[in-house]
Amino acid sequence: MLESLRRIVQEVNNAPDLQLALDIIVRRVKQAVGADVCSVYLNDFENHRHVLQASEGLRPDAVGRVRLELGRGLIGLVSERAEPINLDDAANHPRYECIIDTGEERYHGFLGAPIIQNRKVLGVLVLRQRRRRHFGEDEVTFVMTLASQLAGAITFARTSGELARLQDDGIPQRFLPGLAASSGIGIGEAVVVYPPADLNAVPDRRPDDPEVEVHEFRRAVGDVIQDLERFAARTQNHLRAEDMALFDAWRLMLESDTLIDGTLSRIRAGNWAPGALRETITEHARVFDNMDDAYLRERASDVRDLGRCILMHLQNQAAGPVEYAPRTILVGEEISAMQIADVPRERLVGIVSTTGSGASHVGILARGMGIPAAMGVSDLPVSRIEGREMVVDGYRGRVYVSPGPAVRSEYQRLAEDDAALTSELQTLRHLPAETTDGYLVPLYLNTGLVSEARPLGIEESAGVGLYRTELPFIVRDSFPGEGAQMANYRQVLELFAPRPVTIRTLDIGGDKPLPYFPMQEANPFLGWRGIRITLDQPEIFLTQVRAILRAAIGLDNLRLLLPMVSTVGEVDDALLLIRRAHDELLEEGYQVKMPPIGVMIEVPAAVYQTEALARRVDFLSVGTNDLTQYLLAVDRNNPHVAKLYNEYHPAVLRALLQILTGAKLHGREVSVCGEMAGDPLAIFLLLGMGVHSLSMGAGSLLRVKRVIRSISRARAREVLKVALECEDAGAVRRLLLDALDGVGLGALVRPGK
C-alpha cells in the first residue's frame, strides 16, 4: 500500500488541474482499497452545501449536480467532527441520508475522511462498499494521507477561479494567505522571476590552476559590485537616500572576510571557484537560517542572492531581458533586491514571494518604495501563474489569482481609498506624536543593519530605540576589535545626535551562533545566549562596552541596553563590568561618561522581578516578540503553532501591566520595542497602560503617529479597562478594531474601513 500511495501522490502532484487530480484520486483509491465507490464532496460554505465533485462508482451524471445541505448526512458529520468516520452499515446511523440520484442506496460500508487545510474542512473523501465492511486501520491512514494531498490543490483552485468554472454558479474566489510585508493594494499582471544560476547544482571539482580560479572569482565579485552600482543608480530617483542603504549592505557583504577569504581558502584547498563559492554561501547562509530573530534570519536570502549573482558571472551567463507588463506584480520563490530594481518603477505595482517575511531585504525595499508586498505565500504555485491577473493585499498579506469581476471591482475601490490614506499620512511628517490631551509619546526606530548609513525613518523618529549589534559580528570570520566596533557605533550615534540611541549589547549564542564561535545545544531557545554568554566570556563584553563608550565621547546621546536578562544577579554582574570598562577608559585618558543603562524584559522571570530590576537600572525596554513566545510557549516561526502566537493574549497584557507597575515604583520609564509597538491596534492598550515611548520599524511610524494624534489617554484607559475583562485574544482584537473604527482609522489596518 505504501508503493500505491507514492504513485498516487506523484500522479496528483503532476495533474495540470483540480478536476483531473480529483478524478485520479477517486479512480486510484477505489482500486487500491478494493472499494465499490470512491467519491469527493467539496464544501461550498457560501451557499451552505456539500457538492459531489468527483466519483468512481456512482452515476456519472450525478457529479457536479448532486448537492447536500451543509451539515446534513454523514458527509456533514465528517465535516463537523473533522475526523474520519468508519461504519460497517451506514444506513443504520441516525445521521445517514439516502440520495437516490447517486444510486448509493445499494451500499453499506462507509469511510469518510475530511480534507483539511489550516484547520478548515474543505471537503470529504468517501469510500463505499456494497457489503458490510469496517475498513482497516491501514486503509484509514491511507485515505487520510491522500485527503491531505488534495487540500492544497483545492485551495489553489478556489483562489484561481478554477473551481468556480467547474461548478454551475461557482464558489466565490478565495485568497492565498501570506505575511503582510508592505501595506497597500496592488492590481496587475504576474511576471515570474527566478534565479539565473543554481548554486545547489554546482559540483566539487579539482582546479587545474588554483590561481586562475582565484582570479576568476575576484573578477566575478568585481562584476557584481559594478552591477550593484548600476542598479543603485537606476533606482536613486525613486528611493530616498536612507533606502539606498540596502545596496550598501550588499556591497559590504561582498567585501566581508567570511565571504571572500572563505572562498579563496577553499579554492586553494583544492576546489574550483564555483564549488568553493557554493560551500562558502551554504555555510554562511546556514548561520542565518538557524536564527530565531526574524530580522537576522532573513539575511540568509541576501547571502544566497549574492552567491547566485557571483556564480552567474563565473559562468559568464547573462539573464535574458524580461518583458515587464505595464502593471507588473513581481512574483517568485525568492526575489532579490536587484530583480526588483530591474523593473521600471512606473511599472511595478506589487511584489509576491513564496518565502521570506517583512524583515527580509525585499520587504524593507518594498516599504521604502511604497510597493504593496506579501511574503511567505507558500501555497502559490509560481510556475503556473505567469501572465495572470493578480491582486496583492499588502495589509493582510493576501493574494488573489485571476480575480472575478466582483473581487477586482472591490479592490480597485480599496486601492483608490488607500492612495488617499497614504497622501493624508504624509501630512503628519515632522508633527509631534502627541495625544489629543497633550501627552507626548516619542516614537523611536528599530535598526541595526550593518551598513545602514542612513536608516529608514531617520527623519521621522525621535532617535533609535533598539540598535542591534549582532550583524557586524556575524559577517566576519573573527571577533571584531575595539576600534572596528567603535567606528560602527560612532556612525549611528553621530547620525542621530542629539537624539538618543539605545544600543543593545551583543545578543548572540543559542540560536544565533557566530561562524567562529560555534555551539551545539538541544534547546537553543532556552540555552546559552544574550547576557548569559557575554558574562561567561567577559572579555567579549568588556571589549564591546569599551567600544560603545568611546563611540559616545562628545555626543552624550548613548543609552545602553542589556538583553535576555532573567536574574538580578546578571544585572549586578553586568553593571560591575560596565563600571570597570568606564574606569579603565578614564585612566587611559578618554573622556567617557556613564550612560543610562536599561534591561530588556523579554523573559517571564524578569516580569516577576521588574521592581528589583528597576531599582538597579535607569530604564526598561519590553521585547514583546520574545516575551509573547516565552509566555505562550509558542514559536511563531513554526507553522504548526504559529496561529497560537498572539500579543493580545490576556496573559501578555497582564504581564505588560505588571512591568509598568514595578517600574513606576522607582520612577523608571518603560519603552516597548517589539512588533506590538508598531501595530496601530495596540496603541490604545499601550497608551492606556502608560508606556512612555515606542520603538518600531520605519514603515509603522506615520501610522502609529496617526492613531496617537487621534485619541486621548483617557479614551485609551477606557479601552484598556474593557480589554482586561476579555478572556481571549480574539475578543481583545475585536474590541480594538471597534475602537479604531470609532475614531475613523480602521483603514490603517483594514483597507476600505
What does the model show?
GO terms for molecular function: phosphoenolpyruvate-protein phosphotransferase activity. It catalyses: L-histidyl-[protein] + phosphoenolpyruvate = N(pros)-phospho-L-histidyl-[protein] + pyruvate. InterPro entries: GAF (IPR003018), GAF-like_dom_sf (IPR029016), PEP-util_enz_mobile_dom (IPR008279), PEP-utilizing_PTS_enzyme (IPR050499), PEP_util_C (IPR000121), PEP_util_CS (IPR023151), Phosphohistidine_dom_sf (IPR036637), PTS_EI-like (IPR006318). With 753 residues, the protein is of the alpha/beta class. It has 27 helices and 22 strands. The strands form three sheets. The chain has an eight-stranded mixed beta sheet. An eight-stranded parallel barrel has the order 15-16-17-18-19-20-21-22. Strand 10 (328-332), helix 12 and strand 11 form a beta-alpha-beta unit. The longest helix has 26 residues, at 210-235. The relative contact order is 0.07. The model is unreliable at 167-173 and 450-456 (pLDDT under 50).
